[in-house]
């Protein structure tokens, strides 16, 4: 990995810096399974919600986009009221776990952040989550990034969420870097697609369960299991 070829590094948060993708995943599963257990309408598929549903329809997307896309995949009428109600129910569950358990970042990710800061590269976080600032704070990493483009920031600026490339492009611009000289680090298919659609210099897929082949197919240039693999000379 030759970091001198790049001017900025853009990290997804949940599943890349912190293991919170799993917390999101569990909160979604609890909420959707409770909902499906009670829902009944002709033509709707109410079979239990699984991890495959998460990876195919929800992972990495802004909250309400994930709810909408999943409901549609089951032939369920995704009215705005229902979408907001379910998304907010899941958000309460997520925040309960965050407050109760706190967040410890992946050690390999902290190693890479330390290394890149040592090189003087500007770092940004680009997350679909409105909870990104709270998660970074809980992980003790809030002061490491020059910009945090969260779900809230994207909403305020009217930027479409992942898989559209706009939030990553905005972060690169804030850091004063060309997309072609910026690196995107992503664990979700929707996020890798966003990186590929934005013609970034390098899109790194971080395999936390989506699968290396799936991430490559979505447009990842390389796939790693641990960000420590991107630190030159690291034994990890
Ligand atoms: O925390 P919020 O605003 O509901 O954001 C939701 C999404 O945030 C992303 O960062 C996660 O990768 C998703 O899987 C999750 O569903």
From TrEMBL:
Primary enzyme class: isomerase
Cofactor: Mg(2+)
Organism of derivation: Nocardioides mangrovi
EC number: 5.4.2.6
Keywords (A to Z) from UniProt: Carbohydrate metabolism, Hydrolase, Isomerase, Magnesium, Metal-binding, Phosphoprotein
GO terms, molecular function: hydrolase activity
Name of this chain's protein: Beta-phosphoglucomutase
Catalytic activity: beta-D-glucose 1-phosphate = beta-D-glucose 6-phosphate
The keyword Nucleotide-binding belongs to this UniProt entry's keyword annotation: no
Similarity annotation: Belongs to the HAD-like hydrolase superfamily. CbbY/CbbZ/Gph/YieH family.
NCBIfam families reported for this sequence: HAD-SF-IA-v3, PGMB-YQAB-SF
């Amino acid at each position: 990995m030759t970091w001198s070829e790049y001017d900025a590094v853009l990290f997804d948060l949940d599943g890349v810096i912190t293991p919170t993708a799993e917390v999101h995943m569990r909160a979604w599963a609890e909420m959707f399974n409770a909902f499906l257990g009670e829902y009944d309408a002709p033509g709707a598929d109410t079979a239990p919600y699984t991890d495959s549903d998460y990876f195919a329809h929800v992972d990495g997307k802004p909250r309400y986009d994930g709810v909408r896309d999943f409901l549609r995949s089951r032939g369920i009428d995704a009215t705005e009221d229902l979408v907001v109600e379910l998304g907010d129910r899941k958000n309460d569950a997520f925040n309960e776990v965050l407050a109760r358990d706190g967040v410890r970042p992946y050690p390999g990710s902290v190693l890479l952040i330390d290394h890149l800061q040592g090189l003087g590269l500007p770092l940004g976080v680009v997350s679909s989550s409105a909870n990104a600032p709270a998660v970074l704070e809980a992980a003790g990493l809030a002061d490491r990034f020059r910009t945090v483009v969260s779900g809230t920031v994207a909403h305020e600026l009217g930027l479409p969420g992942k898989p559209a490339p706009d939030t990553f492009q905005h972060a690169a611009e804030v850091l004063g870097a060309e997309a072609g000289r910026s690196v995107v680090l992503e664990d979700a298919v929707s996020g890798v697609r966003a990186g590929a659609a934005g013609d970034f210099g390098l899109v790194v897929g971080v395999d936390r369960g989506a699968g290396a082949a799936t991430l490559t197919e979505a447009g990842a240039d390389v796939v790693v299991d641990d960000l420590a693999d991107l630190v030159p000379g690291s034994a990890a």
